[in-house]
Amino acid sequence: MNYAAVSLTSREEIEVHRFSWLVSLGIPLLAIFIQVFFPLRLPFLSVFDLPLLVTIFFAVARRRPIPGMITGALIGTVQDAWTSLPIGVNGIAKTIIGFLASSLGVKLDVDNPGSRFLMTFTFYLVHRVIYVVIVLALVGGNEPFSWGHTLVAALANALLSVVLFAGLDKFKQRM
Amino acid sequence: MENFFSRYKNPLVLMAILFVQVVALATQVKRPEGSGSAASGGTRLIRVWTVTAISPFERALIATGSYIRRNFHNYIDLHDVRQQNRQLQDEIAQLKLEQVRMQQDAEQAKRLRSLLGFTQHYVGQLLPAQVIGTSGAEQSHMIQIDKGSRSGVKVDMPVITPDGIVGKVKDVFPFTSMVLLINDRDSGAGVILQTSRLQGVLRGNPQGELHVGDIMSDEKIDVGEEVVTSGGDRIYPKGLPVGAVSRVSPDRENEPFLAVKVKPAADLSRLEEVLVVTRVAQESPQQSAQDTNVRAADILSERLPSVPKPEETKKTHIPNTRAPAVPSPAPAQPAANATKPGANASVPAAPARAATPTNTTKTGVAPKAVVKPEQKAANPPSPTTTWQKTATPTDTPAANGVPVNHNPQPKVSPTPGKKPKAPAAAEGSPTPTPAASPESQEKPPQ
């Protein structure tokens, strides 16, 4: 009897995708647009962090740390432009998330809904911690941290990521 | 060495990117306050690029939504328009009467303020704007409006709604502006509590709540007490509603002080249209004093003896029950406290149909004016009809001799060239005079 050897780093699992320039530019801008526009009518939607989800998605799909970092840095910096905080707070946090997500994407299968849920849940918490540390340590501001609210927000973002990533998978192009 | 860089390429790139961003962040944080604003050094380029790229889509979406909503509402509401119009016309008439009374009170307050040497700031010009975006983050409370520098918006201009203050303009772009809401942690406003007259500084916090600080714990503040702007921050004009006190508790972090939580009057989470205060009018005491002198001269020149007709006196003579209690003012007093002709009870305009106590309502608001045919013939009304208070026997002089009238009456605009006649009642005299009667006011000055 022949058994096929299956490893966690088989070709299928480490498949690297790329995106057209239109998608690479349009999806993050659309995410930021939705992020700043929709809470105007539905304030509770600000609990979602669409730019973070897009950062995670691109980083994981490309599976290359440097593009993942740059994507995170750009998205975060643009997102900062809309806030009253100094520019760079979200940029730093999302750069780290982009690096971690792309590094994780190289090693693990992150294309199924369960792993995407867990991954986004974890990355949201990490992002939040980094954000708070930056505000407290670098900016010198006062940033409250509520575990309850953060966990609920992480859960909501994780659920949304399952749906969102499935939709964004259609824009993937194999290299 | 080459092996080291190729091996640790990714972490090195990460560190490089983070280093650049941290340096950029440190540059911003260390920069002196206010230097990042458009007024003092320009807005950050990244903000300009981002807002310029995204705001057109927001504006288009808002405009499309407004167009559809407006047309839909126009169609739905059409059948109620006539009835609503009638109700609104009635309401306008009532409000005009109310406005006259308010104007009289405001005039009097202005005069008193000028006597005390106050400088008054008030809303001079408003620019309506539509809210087209938010910061998109829970930690930052900002909104974006569809008016920018092309519309005359400048940094630090206050933004309000009819309900209360909203915030101030933080960044200005050609067609849009970013407004820092009062509940943002970086926001602050000078406020005063309406009843207790305690002053403090209103600040937001990261949760989006409003707190008034710097109030000692031995002060008594009631929940529900209204909070208005004090004007001390030189941004918000004085007297604008801010909100109401929703909770008072000892401030554990600042022990001798109170933690006064304020519920904002404006719904900051659901803003759709706002008003940008593009000009704050200022009135100095000198100007008021000059106005007062001019008015005094006018009044003195107009205070000519007049002999009313006996029947007119009979018609309008109604005993004033408060008259004996009112002291007669000194002869020089009216000049010092003279009031604006046509704006106060001291000098009624000649063609105005004066009120008598018999034609006023319980609330002090006069019913609709009825112009008699003979009055019209004697004094054809001008196309515009204004509402003005006139002297009545019910007028009572204030403590400083300024007459106070709470019975606003309608009047027809005076015919050009016709000089108003000064009534004796304007001086606070308890004796009713024919100047207060409609007939006497229709006559030219003698």
Q: How does this model look, in words?
A:
The complex is a heterodimer of chains A (175) and B (446). With 175 residues, chain A is mainly alpha-helical. Chain A is 65% helix and 2% strand. Chain A has helices spanning 21-37, 50-62, 65-80, 89-107, 113-139, 147-168, and strands spanning 17-18, 173-174. A two-stranded antiparallel sheet of chain A has the order 1-2. Mean pLDDT of chain A is 85; it is low at 1-12. Chain B has 446 residues and is of the alpha+beta class. In chain B, helix 4 (81-116) crosses helix 5. The longest helix of chain B has 36 residues, at 81-116. Residues 31-40, 287-294 and 312-446 of chain B have low confidence and may be disordered. Chains A and B meet through helix 1, helix 3, helix 4 and helix 5 of A and helix 2, helix 3, strand 1 and strand 2 of B.
- Poorly predicted runs of chain A are 1-12
Main sheet attributes: strand count, strand direction, barrel closure of chain B: 6 strands, antiparallel, barrel
Percent range for β-strand residues of chain A: under 5%
Largest sheet of chain A: 2 strands, antiparallel
Oligomer: heterodimer
- Mean pLDDT of chain A comes to 85
Total DSSP E strands of chain B: 16
- The 3D shape of chain A can be described as globular
User: How many DSSP helices of chain B?
Assistant: 9
Low-confidence segments of chain B, given as residue ranges, are 31-40, 287-294, 312-446
Q: Encode the helix/strand succession of chain B as letters.
A: HHHHEEEEEEEEEEEEHHHHEEEEH
Helix content of chain B: 25-40%
Give, in order, the helices and strands of chain A: EHHHHHHE
- In whole angstroms, how far apart are the ends of chain B? 109 Å
Order of strands in the sheet with most strands of chain B? 1-2-5-4-3-12
Beta-strand residue percentage of chain B: 15-25%
Kindly provide the radius of gyration of chain B, computed on alpha-carbon positions and rounded to a whole number of angstroms: 30 Å
